[in-house]
Amino acid sequence: MKQAIILAILLVLVAGCSTMETSTISGTQELVLNEQDIQEIGIRSNLNEEGLKQLGIEGDGVNCWTDNAYSNIVDTSAGQYTICAYLIPSLNDTEVIVELQKFANYEALDGSYQYSSSHLYGVKGIISRDEYGDKSVFRVNSEDDYGAEFNEPGVYYYHLWICKDLYLIHVTSGGRSREAGEYVKKIGEQILSKFG
Q1: What is residue 1's predicted lDDT score, i.e. its pLDDT?
Q2: DSSP element (H, E) containing 88
Q3: Prediction pTM value
């Protein structure tokens, strides 16, 4: 009986350890869409210097910027942050912003995710939960969001948040197209595929 209990405990430990995620990704820059990704999705890099400056992206011919000494709102632990800007040519150059964050620990990740994915948003705009893994949320703006009364009619801001290992992925569209949600999903899926 004693051996059976010990064997059961060992099996639980082995099974638990075998399901732990181990990422081959070492930083946010490895998650940035490459030229092949961009072509497959049907988007292009946003190189509008004026618009990029508003996002803190400055440089000749670049659409991404990385902060290697990033500390988030919720936790002051050191992490990494990358922001990239893209356009959807088939939808009148609707903008898409991709934010990639790496956290020092799961508490910082969870706190930041909880804050950014639910802060100021109502429940009516939720399209799906956990479709892209635990803690993923896909939503569009709705009338129960904080400040929704200031949105112009016909504006659709899509947001996709995905947690993977110590990373928080946030993809959002610029609000000019109802069809942009499909591109937001494709971008999220392409970034997730980089984890292997």
Answers
A1: 45
A2: strand 78-88
A3: 0.83
